[in-house]
Amino acid sequence: MDTLDLINNSALADLANLLKSAGDELRLEILRALAQDSYGVLELSHIFDVRQNSISHHLKVLATANLVSNRREGNSIFYRRIHSLAGEQSTLRAALFQQIDELDLNPDVQARIEEIHQKRAQVSQLFFKEHGTSLREKQDLIAEFDVYGPQLDNFLNDCTLPNWERVLEVGPGSGELLPYLSARFHDVVALDNAETMLASARAHCQAKGVDNVHFELDDTHYCQQHPRSFDCVVINMVLHHTPSPRQIFADISGALKPGGVLIICDLCQHNQDWTQKACGDVWLGFEPRELQEWARAATMREGQSTYFALRNGFQIQIHEFVKI
């Protein structure tokens, strides 16, 4: 058998794997669900009400066809739909994803997905309720605001906004960024779903003499109630705490005015899983392409970006996404 025959046989095998993976209704439903978020095997078992070993088998088939990938987050392995569609059968895989995404999820499946998100959110809220007063000290082990805050402020200064009227900060933490935002915008809204954190941010603003910040106790569903209300939304070192980052992008997109800007400051992907227990992190940072994909899905285009490393091995990324 010559080299050309070997190449052809390999391509045929890959195509057969792809077609085989698409030939099962449950696997198609799994791919549809993974368009929204990343899930562990136990979570997918609950979502589809299917035994764990069966879900594991279907995920193996999908992985062999290069339709899903996995990533370790501490002690858990999460599966997600493949990001890159380059290479063999890329056109066919893209068409498959497009066709799948036009289908509605089964209402029972969607309800169980919401249960997963609520469970993640409850775990996060409990952590911040119990550790809110000591959280800054723990988070400073990763990245002190005094180290990266000025760079974030300079980044904001370089953004081109149609107006500098209203800004929303999601998850203000101890409120360090709020005085910076207060100096640039007429009206500032600080949004957090933990009363402990809002109280800390409020105290910080009072100490700094900041009086144009309004505090809202809610999650990003707040954005759905305020469409096209903000010129800018900032999420500073918060996204890795959220139960569904993709949903965060979707919620925020609706609250931005056309031409408005979303600024994300967060950790790049890392493997220091001690942050999950010490700081309540859900995700161990993000690949830039993940953020870009979520932004595109939420009708935002990428603007400027910057990256810088910290001495402790972490790397910070800051991105600007513009509402189309």
Describe this structure in words.
It is a single chain. Helix 1 runs antiparallel to helix 4, helix 3 packs across helix 4 (52-64) and helix 12 (245-255) crosses helix 14 (288-297). The longest helix has 25 residues, at 107-131. It is built from 14 helices and ten strands. By secondary structure, the protein is α/β, with parallel strands linked by helices. The radius of gyration is 21 Å and the shape is globular. The model has no long low-confidence stretch (mean pLDDT 91). The strands form two sheets. Strands 6-5-4-7-8-10-9 form a seven-stranded mixed β-sheet, sandwiched between helices. A hairpin with a 2-residue loop joins strand 2 and strand 3 (76-81).
Keywords:
single chain; 324 residues; alpha/beta; 7-stranded mixed beta sheet; 3-stranded antiparallel beta sheet; 14 helices; 10 strands
What topology emerges from the helices and strands here?
Layout: H1 3-21, H2 25-34, E1 39-40, H3 41-48, H4 52-64, E2 68-73, E3 76-81, H5 90-101, H6 107-131, H7 135-139, H8 145-157, E4 166-170, H9 178-184, E5 187-192, H10 195-208, E6 213-217, H11 221-224, E7 230-236, H12 245-255, E8 256-267, H13 274-279, H14 288-297, E9 300-309, E10 315-323
Helix pairs in contact: 1-4, 3-4, 3-6, 12-14
Please report the total strand number as a whole number: 10
Mean pLDDT: 91
Are there runs of 5+ residues with pLDDT below 50, and where?
A: none
Report strand %: 15-25%
For the largest beta-sheet, the strand count, sense and barrel status come to: 7 strands, mixed
Instruction: Order the strands across the largest sheet as they lie in space.
Output: 6-5-4-7-8-10-9
Q: Helical proportion? A: 40-55%
Order of helices and strands: HHEHHEEHHHHEHEHEHEHEHHEE
Q: What gross morphology would you assign?
A: globular
* Terminal Cα span: 53 Å
> Which structural class do the helices and strands define?
alpha/beta
In DSSP terms (H or I, runs of 4 or more residues), the helix count works out at 14
Calculate Rg over CA atoms: 21 Å
